[in-house]
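Q: What structure does this chain adopt?
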Amino acid sequence: MKAVVYTQYGPPEVLQLKEIAKPQPKDNEVLIKVMATTVNRSDCAMLLAKPFIMRFGTGLFKPKNPILGTEFAGRIEAVGKHISKFKAGDDVFGFDDRGLSTYAQYLTLPETQAFTTMPESASYEQAAASIEGAHYAYNFINKVNLQTGERVLVNGASGGIGSAMVQLLKHLGAHVMAVCDTKNLERIKSIGADEVIDYLKEDFTKIDQKFHYVFDAVGKSAFGKCKPLLLPGGVYISSELGYMSQNVFLSLLTPLFGGKKVKFPIPFDRLKSIELIKKLTEEGHFKPVIDRKYQLEKIADAFDYVSKGLKTGNVVITIPH
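A:
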């Protein structure tokens, strides 16, 4: 089978399209024909092994797993004899930010892995692009007690996490102000944002408005800058650790003093997120924003595009068969 492999950390140029052996499922595994996958921020971090602490999971000096890829959509081709939940012919989608080796024509997964049958209304490309951003967005929202009508500012609303977050927040009845660049203003309005700010023309931290929550979906701001935007008791959450990992420490310290606080969104239950995404997709409440699609052999170009911070929503990789 065809697969994209890497044997060293580095820029997209280290990725190589190769012919390797097709995996065979064990008794507790399914064999999946991968139809679509994505390139996201997690994939870019694993390619570069940055921050360095990642190497303790991915391999200290070189990658332990030569095939990248964290989310996928495809069709089950064969099942092991101990599989009861799935059958051959099922269309499935799944995600694991620790890596699933999805940059290949086939992969094997145990039944206990975080994947399930695809939403009936979704294509393979839509299903593959729907998980990572929504998973992280959902794990922002479930860290707070969001009430209908509460005001939320989303920084980075045009990214994979941000575009999913806008849709989830609107489904839950929040009033959403979205921060993005000029080219994406209308697109973000179209997925539900009540108000938009063009960060190329205006510093959102200086606006004269208050919010119950500020969600930084790109991790490019800080609690100190956003604190004036928060109402009493308001919460700031970022997708990044922050300068010198300040968001972790602030999430431990700020609740001790009352008032405005920081929470840190540690996402655990991937399968719960996937099942929620499936439900919302089938009900018409969620649809992933897709920027570009690349063929598998052009995946280095996709990584280059994503790593430069150019993407809107998600970048999809289609797998040839």
